[in-house]
Input
Amino acid sequence: MTDSPLQQELSEHYRWFHAHPERSYKEVATTARLRGLLTDAGIEILDNPKLETGLVAIIEGTKDTHSHSPVATHTVALRGDIDGLPITEDTGLPYSSQNPGVMHGCGHDFNMTSALGAALYLKAHADTFAGRVKVLFQPAEEVAADKDTPTGAVYVLRSGALDDVETIFGVHDTSSLPVGSIGISAGAVSGAVSKFQIHVQGQGSHAAHPNEGRSPIRAAAHLVDAIETVAGLDVNPATPRAVTVTHIESGSTWNVIPDKAFVEGTVRTLGSQVRDDIHERIAAIVSGIGIAYGITATLTWEDGSPSVENDAELATRARQAATTLGLTPVPSAPSLGGEDFSYYQERIRGLFIHSGVGTDAGAMHSPHFAPDVAGLADTATLLATLATQELARLNDTAE
Output
């Protein structure tokens, strides 16, 4: 579909979104642009004042099911995320970011444009399906979530916008696949994310008299070494995982042993059970080193998004649909990167797929990431097809 009218239209929209990236929960212009394009196409937009950025489009199918008994209106959803990253773009593209220090360095411009294309396609083919499709343009997938600032998926779920959704499909671009290849796998395809922090309380002293204190630095150094061995020695080696210390801090001068140290890092696992096992081992290490070195070590552990766990039946049907459309379904490459689509799957049956944007696109989350967007229309059509096929299945089941 590289020369199709839909591809040409979506390419134009993509260039605008790429040139106007916005940070998480600040996607005001992006949301306004989407609202205008959808409204111009005659597509209804859900009235939900709880969504300050992002929105949900609704496309109602008009196909007659020819059923002699009332059939409940079923609802499925499609999701594309819309926020950019705090990166200064260095691609040289003629439509490079016009917002200094912000870039669509993870391809959310591709994801939202694919979802927009699906909405436009569904509106133009509303007479081919019965039921309702909600197309979600989600904010803040990239936000540094904490207890006060939820990730975008949690924000959307709390708004109630998806309360009636029975099945949800999501898409993300990937530079690990060529254009025309679609990554589709059952089971876990993203990392369960956790953050840990360790506060070490020792006893300060003069560096010339270390016996008069309890060095938190010595304890922290052993904590770093012991924690990072967990991934290699305490977990099934066939299971993808990473335990990484990313921040260590203590002291302020050369001749004083400080009284405190701080260590933090992240744990990434493919599947949530492995995450729980690692948490247990790190807690034991922190406790043991505290006793061994005569200091107090306190562990704080915060679980982030769980693994995206794809439904096996949906994956099978998606591979069939991709093949029918002339695309090439291949397994999604497992990644330990986090993806908040997993929060939807905790409540809603779901499938998350990956659309290839070329292996020469560069690394995601880098200032040089430049995807090949020739597959926008194909990705949009696949999303629309998955939605209408799932509605047909739900209608058949109801009858």
Q: What stands out?
A: The domain at 192-303 is CATH 3.30.70.360 (Alpha-Beta Plaits). The chain has two domains: 5-190+307-398, 192-303. The chain has a mean pLDDT of 95. Residues 50 and 351 are 26 Å apart (CA to CA).
